[in-house]
Amino acid sequence: MTLDRRSLLKLGGAAALVLTAGGGTFLMTRTPNRALAPWQSAGNGYADPRLQALSYAILAPNPHNRQPWLIDLRREGELTLYCDPDRVLPETDPFQRQIVIGLGCFLELLSLAAAERGFAIEIVPFPDGQPEPNLDARPIARVHFRAAAAAPDPLFRQVLERRTNKEPFDTSRPVDEAALEQLAAAGGGALAVQTTNETKLVAWLRQLTWQAMKIEIETPRTYLESIRLMRLGKTEIEASPDGIDLGGPFLETLSKLGLMTRQSLADPQSTAYRQGLDMFREITGTAMAYVWIKTPGNSRLDQLAAGRTWLRLNLKATELGLGLHPLSQALQEYAEMEPHFGAIHSQLGGSGQRLQMLGRLGYGPEVDPSPRWPLETRLQEAKWPKRPKIRRSSRCSTRSASSNNCPGSALKECCRRASRSLTSASSTISRGLEANARRPIWREPFR
Ligand SMILES: Cc1cc2nc3c(=O)[nH]c(=O)nc-3n(C[C@H](O)[C@H](O)[C@H](O)COP(=O)(O)O)c2cc1C
Question: How far is the CA of 141 from the centre of ligand 1 (A)?
Answer without folding.
Answer: 22
